[in-house]
Specification:
The chain contains 8 helices and no strands. It is elongated.
Length: 197
């Protein structure tokens, strides 16, 4: 309805209000539309001038003081209709039998990591590939004397104290000129001299 009124010109809206004996005044278009919507006689005049705009399933406009939460007046709430209530019929279908109780669960078996990996590979349909263990250099064929010569050549010592499990710091080959510089630096900054230098 509002869109149909907006499609009209201001002059036509003023004509509708004047035929409904409502003074249009000197108002804007939206004010004129609001006046028409607020007055039922103006709405009736609009429908008489524009019969195509009339809705086919029009319900009477409720008065402004109508209580929307009140029950409708056309229903008689005092009469109770007795409708016989029938109990629900049991269906003749048989219910599915409960699943047989599973046997007591077996105690969890302790599997090694390799067995777990094999089971996982089987579950996902993959082939299990055995892990390759890393071989030490001595097992590959490196001679211990060769390893020792290489360590001396590059200044690395791979000695591990087996009693404590700690690695020792590599022994540095320091020339006397470098030792003198380190001693002077230690004196200047108040650092303790290391026993190695």
């Amino acid at each position: 309805m509002d869109t149909k009124l907006k499609a009209l010109k201001v002059q036509e809206l003023k004509e509708i209000l004047s035929k409904a004996s409502i003074p249009p005044g000197n108002a804007k278009k939206q004010d004129l539309i609001n006046k028409i919507l607020a007055n039922p006689p103006a709405i009736d005049v609009f429908y008489t001038l524009h019969p195509a705009a009339k809705p086919k399933n029009s319900k009477p406009v409720p008065p402004a003081d109508d209580d929307l939460l009140a029950p409708p007046e056309e229903i008689d709430w005092t009469v109770e209709e007795s409708i016989p209530v029938e109990p629900p019929k049991k269906s003749e279908q048989l219910l599915p039998s409960p699943a047989p109780a599973a046997a007591a669960p077996s105690p969890p078996t302790v599997q090694s990591e390799e067995e777990k990996r094999k089971a996982r590979a089987a579950r996902f349909g993959m082939t299990y590939i055995e892990p390759v263990q890393q071989q030490t250099k001595e097992a590959v064929g490196e001679h211990p004397d060769k390893l020792k010569a290489r360590a001396e050549r590059f200044g690395t010592v791979a000695s591990v104290t087996k009693a404590r499990g700690k690695r020792t710091a590599p022994i540095e080959n320091i020339d006397p000129e470098e030792q003198e510089r380190r001693r002077k630096r230690a004196e200047r900054f108040g650092l303790p001299l290391s026993g190695k230098a």
